[in-house]
Every structure is written in C-alpha cells, then in structure tokens.
Specification:
The complex is a heterodimer of chains A (about 325) and B (about 400). Chain A is α/β, with parallel strands linked by helices and about 325 residues long. In chain A, about 35% of the residues lie in helices and about 30% in strands. A six-stranded mixed sheet of chain A has the order 6-7-8-3-9-10, sandwiched between helices. Chain B is built from 14 helices and five strands. In chain B, the strands form two sheets. A three-stranded antiparallel sheet of chain B has the order 2-3-5, with no helix packed on it. In chain B, strands 1-4 form a two-stranded parallel ribbon. Classes of the chains: A alpha/beta (about 325), B mainly alpha (about 400). The interface between A and B is medium-sized, with 36 and 31 residues.
Chain lengths: ~325, ~400
C-alpha cells in the first residue's frame, strides 16, 4: 500500500485562534479514512487546506505525490472535493451542471457525454438528467455534488460532513455509494461528527480535537492500543431468578468489569477484552448452558473510543478554538 | 517532446474561460429572457431617437435661412448624439449591474469553492464571468446599430463617426463591467457590491466632472502669462466620464466645429478662433482680438480659425495655422481641427483601468497565493515537480 495523502505539522492560524495545531496524517491508497471530532475541532479547516482552498500557516501536505504548496494545480487534478455547505447554480439542468464541471477539467465533448451518463447512473440520477438542479431534493443535490466531484475521475475524494442534513434513507444510499467508490479504487477522506455513520464505513480514522490528532489508525488498532472497554449486551432466554443467575455467571468471568440487567431484560456487560476474548466469552456462556438469543456490542466502538481519547487529560493547546 | 508534455497536461485556461462562458450564457440566454431584454432596449433607443428627431424637425421648421441640406445634417447629428448619450447612460447602468453580482453571487450561493478546486485559473473565472456578462451588454449595444444607422438618412454623420461612438460604448461597458466585477470579488454580499459599484460609477462620472467644473471656474481668471489663456484643470479628470468622450465623438461628427467642439476645446485647452468670413472664403486679420485666438505651448503658437456660416451657404472648413498669423484672404482648407482630441486618450485610460480592476479581481478570487505570481507553465515544467 502506498501513502496517497500525507500531512506534516499542518498549522492554520486565524489571527489569534489556532484552528489546526499541527496535524500529521498518513492515508493509504484505497482507504476510507474518517476524520472524527466535535464541531470546531479543525476537520473542515484540514480538508479545505487539502483541497487547496486554504493555505496552511505552517506545515506541508502532499496528495498523490504532489506538494500542495508547489503543485496545487496538479493536486486539483487528482482531487475531488465536496464541501460541507455547498450551493447549486440556479438555472442549470442536472446534465448541464456536470457538463460545466467537465469543461472546467478540460474534458472533451465525447468524454463529457460518456462520463455524465456513467455518473448519473452511479448516483442514481439518470432519470433526473433534464431536471433543474434547484428542483432536486437535498439528498439528490448531495449525490449530484458527489457526482460533480467525480467528473475528472480523481484518485482522492474529500468529503466534508457528507451526510449532514440527509434523511436516514439518503444516508444509507450515500453509504452504499461510498462503498462502491471504494471498490472502484478511490481513496476517500471523510469528516463527520456523527460517529456511527463513520464506524460502519471507515477502514481507518483520525480522532481530532482542538486542532490536534489525538489518535489515528485502524479502529481495532487504536482500541487495542488504548485498551478501551466495550459494552456488550446479551439477550438470555430466561426470566426472574434464572436471569439473575445468568448475570451472576457473567460477572464472574474474566475481563467482565460489570454486569447488570436492563429494564427490557437484556444483560449489559462492561467488558475490557478484545474481539477474541469476546468470542471466548460467548462460547463459554453457551457451553455453560445459557440460552442466548443475541449477543452484540452495544455502544458504538468509535463513540467509546472517541470519549476515551478526548477524555484523556491532554494539555489543551493555547489559544485553541473552543 | 513538447507535444507529449502538452498532451499530458492539457492547458485548461482557455477551456476554463469557455466553461464559464457556456455556463453563464446558458443561464442568461435561456428562454425568452434575452429576447425580451433586447426588444425592450431597442424599443427604448428607437422611441427616444424618434422623439428627438421630431423635436429637431419641428425646431428646424421654425428656423429660416439655412439650407435644407444643412438642416437635415444637423437633425441627423442631433439624433446621433441623442442615441449615443442615451446608450451611454443605459450601458453605464446595465454593465455594472450585470457584473456586480457575479462573483459575490457565487460566494453567496456557496458555489465558488466548487469552482476554486477545479484546475481552472482565477483568471479564467474572472475573465469568463466578465466576458459572459459583457456578451449580454454587447448584444444590446449591437442590437441598436440598425436604429442608429437610420441617422444616415438625414446625413450629417459619417459611418466612421458611428464607429467611434460604438467603440466608446463598448469601452464604457468593459470599464464599468470590470468595476462591477472588482466590487463583486471584493465584497461578499451582492447587494452591497452592486451599491458600491453604482456609487463608484457616479463618483467617476458626475463626481469627477463636478470637481473639474469647480476647478475650471476657480481658475477662470487665472490667465497664463504667455498665452493669456485661462489655466485649465487636468482633462484626465474627465477621462472616466464616457459622456465627455461621446461629446468628443459628436464634435467629430460636427466636422471639428460647433457647440460640442467648443466644449471639447474648453476641456482640452484648445482655443477656437471664430472668424467672420469677409467677402467670401477668408479670415479676418489676426491678433488676439476678435478674429482668432491662439494658444502657445512655449515654442509654437497654434491659432485656430473657425468660420461660422452667415446667411447660409458653404461652411468654410477651419484649419489650425501653426506659427503664423492669419491674414485676410487666407483660404481655409484642410483637416478638422478638433477631431479625436479627447476620446482616444479617455478610451485608453478606461481600458487600462479595466485591466487593473480585472487583475485585482483575479487576486481576490484566488483562494491562496494572493499577490504572488506563479511561474508561467513552460517554466514550471522545467522544475522538478514530484516531491515524493
């Protein structure tokens, strides 16, 4: 695997506020990389620097081997960007919108025609070809914006909060679309503060807060490194005393920190073990005669990870954005 | 080798401009909008020309003693001047109005970022937007040509006068359009950008002209010791006022003499000499008396004589007479004395200012690397680009 996006000590300062305070990222080709953090953590600023829309105060960044500072035009050719807040042109039909951006990238007329057809198929807007852009729903506009970022077949896609403002159905569609893009070999850098959305999608994440990367890498690796506990929930087919007995059994097992019965009858476990130990716990529970209908991690791993990481007593950078 | 390099890196500056042009024109020319705007514009010009023509014909009917040819020619000139002034007024409003919202509008609609991450240059964005807005204005101007050409029926205006007038209209559109683009790039809100553009247009035209008039009156009695002519405020103050340039064009149509020319003469510091023809074609003896006026630039004294027709007949054509007094029976022939004294310099100034405003807009649109020119493409290719 080769590194396709690399940043070193990226700093962006606005007057007295430090939006990005030294971000180091390494993103491998073909990854879906999540930039996780609360609002104001510096995610958008980092993405806008990578998209050549902002100049960093200090630090360097590279996309596909091109330096942002020296070869910004080459970077733009390998990059597709979808900002968090984007507008649409009035007075343009869907195909004209894509045709316009195709022209911006210098594509020939036959190439544009072919690509527009393919992209509209990909984002499922083929039947909206002649609709005016402002007449599309929010989710459709989001997909059109994604299509526009793909017009020039970029290697890297930067998506800033792509699912914000989308209804659940549109979110699912977007997720499917991103998976499809990954299978086409695109590297996707995606920022979000909605953690479950990223968890299902991302191969790696970077957790950022107050302009700094607190942890980055594969979710499982970070978890291992930080020894983060997980919450497990088991539905045991039992009632009353039998259920209580099951709880007691669970609380006696290794790596189980706590066990409680929830009002809906689920047994909730605080568990410190990794995936292998989780599997072992389930196996032991079944072999000890418990009838288990479901057994799963309750809270989002990423959420847990995020709270764990941001809860650490990191010295906050001075003048940091609140 | 070069061909291969070019094939690998298509130069997108021109396609960039084309992309913006195509997009903008698609929006502007869609449906009946363009048709309606052209129709209204042409109707206004034609209606105004017709009314001015009627007024001039009526007043000519009450003027006896001039030949019909002379009267017809002055009606033609009157209509021509009226059309040019009206169009200057309309273009001074329409050109900045069409550009002042273009870039701020992109910012407001949050579409400028989408453009800025494509490889098209800021130059292409600004120039494309300026051209596409101006294409619409140019279309209006060109649509009025057939109406203006009707003045040829009356005479008094040569085709090259029409060309001069239209050239100034185009220059006016470019200059005020570039001003609008500049404020549009500078200010984030379209409303404020449009407002400031119009304030600037008014300052450039009415404001500076008022200052010129103020200074002119202040210096009216401050005579130059050598030439005894009044000192004049710099004519450059009026370069931004396209109406003055149109007055110069009108002066050209008058053959370099007449009321419009006297305005230009006053502005440019060329003193006209009015002489009564005595016994046919000739000029009364000179001096600083009633016969002629002269100006001196230190080395040579330029005297100009303009004959006004008395009781009809042929209008003697004036000529500048350099370094000598005009004596009786000098035959006055030769080129028009006051043609093209003002508008070419005004047009050049306006075009230079337009380039300045466009360049400033390009810098304002560029998200990064402001005021740092990047190397031209062929030099950049020589440098090692891959850092990994």
């Amino acid at each position: 695997m080769t590194t396709i996006v690399r940043t070193q000590g990226l700093v962006k300062r606005y007057d007295r506020t430090l939006a990005v305070a030294g971000v180091d990222l390494e993103i491998e080709e073909g990854e879906i990389f999540g930039l996780v953090g609360p609002n104001g953590a510096g995610k958008t600023t980092t993405l806008r620097i990578l998209a050549t829309l902002l100049e960093p105060t200090a630090g360097e960044a590279e996309v596909a081997g091109w330096s942002l500072a020296r070869n910004s035009n080459d970077v733009r050719r390998v990059l597709g960007f979808m900002p968090d807040v984007f507008g649409v042109y009035d007075d343009m039909r869907v195909w004209e919108y894509l045709d316009f951006f195709g022209r911006c990238y210098g594509l020939s007329a036959p190439a544009r025609k072919r690509i527009i057809g393919d992209l509209l198929e990909l984002v499922d807007l083929a039947d909206k070809r002649d609709t005016y852009v402002q007449g599309l729903s929010r989710g459709m506009q989001q997909r059109l914006c994604l299509a526009h970022a793909l017009v020039h077949d970029p290697k890297v896609l930067l998506l800033d909060e792509p699912a914000s403002g989308l209804d659940p159905r549109a979110r699912v569609e977007l997720r499917e679309l991103l998976r499809e893009l990954r299978s086409l070999g695109k590297t996707i850098l995606i920022s979000s503060h909605i953690l479950p959305e990223l968890e299902e999608l991302c191969t790696s994440v970077a957790i950022v807060d107050r302009g700094r990367v607190l942890a980055s890498g594969r979710i499982a690796d970070i978890e291992k490194r930080l020894r983060v506990g997980a919450v497990l929930r088991a539905r045991v087919i039992a009632e009353g005393e039998a259920l209580e007995a099951a709880r007691v059994w669970f609380s006696g097992q290794a790596e189980v920190a706590s066990a409680a019965i929830l009002p809906d009858g689920l047994v909730e476990l605080g568990f410190r073990g990794d995936e292998v130990q989780t599997a072992a716990l389930l196996r032991d529970a079944i072999s000890s005669g418990l009838s288990i209908a479901s057994f799963s991690r309750a809270a989002s791993d990423l959420e847990e990870l995020f709270l764990q990481v941001t809860g650490q007593d990191e010295p906050a950078p001075q003048e940091a954005v609140a | 080798m070069m061909a291969r390099v070019l094939a690998r890196r298509p130069h997108v500056s021109m396609p960039g401009i084309t992309a913006i042009l195509v997009k903008e024109l698609r929006g502007r020319m869609r449906g009946r909008r363009a048709f309606i705007s052209v129709t209204i514009y042409t109707l206004i010009v034609a209606g105004f020309a017709w009314m001015v023509g009627r007024i001039l014909e009526e007043s000519a009917r009450q003027n006896f003693g001039f030949s019909p040819q002379y009267q017809s020619a002055s009606i033609g000139r009157g209509i021509f001047v009226a059309i040019m002034f009206l169009q200057t007024l309309m273009i001074s409003v329409l050109a900045p109005a069409s550009t002042a919202g273009t870039i701020s509008g992109e910012r407001e609609r949050q579409t400028l970022d989408l453009l800025a991450v494509t490889p098209i240059s800021s130059v292409a964005i600004v120039v494309g937007k300026l051209f596409s807005s101006l294409t619409w204005v140019f279309m209006l101007i060109l649509a009025s040509v057939p109406v203006s050409a009707l003045v040829f029926v009356y005479g008094g205006v040569a085709p090259d006068d029409l060309l001069r007038g239209y050239f100034m209209l185009f220059v006016t559109a470019i200059a005020f359009g570039a001003l609008g683009i500049f404020f549009s790039a500078l200010i984030r809100r379209s409303g404020a950008a449009t407002g400031l553009t119009f304030v600037s247009v008014i300052v450039a035209t009415v404001g500076l002209t008022f200052i010129w008039v103020f200074l002119r009156i202040g210096e009216a009695n401050n005579l130059d010791a050598n030439t005894l002519a009044a000192r004049r405020p710099p004519e450059a103050l009026l370069f931004l006022n396209p109406f003055v340039s149109q007055a110069d064009v009108a002066c050209g149509a008058e053959g370099g003499t007449g009321s419009w020319c006297s305005i230009i003469a006053d502005i440019t510091g060329t003193t006209q000499a009015f002489a009564q023809p005595v016994g046919g074609v000739g000029i009364a003896p000179g001096g600083f008396g009633g016969g002629q006026n002269c100006v001196s630039d230190g080395n040579t004294t330029t005297c100009q004589a303009i004959a006004v027709p008395v009781g009809g007949g042929v209008v003697p054509v004036p000529q500048p007479i350099v370094g000598k007094d005009i004596v009786a029976n000098d035959v006055v022939t030769g080129p028009e004395s006051l043609r093209d004294r003002f508008w070419p310099r005004a047009a050049l100034t306006l075009l230079l200012i337009s380039i300045g405003f466009t360049a400033a807009s390009v810098q304002l649109v560029t998200p990064t690397r402001r005021w740092r020119p990047s190397l031209p493409g062929f030099l950049r290719r020589l440098r090692p680009r891959r850092s990994a």
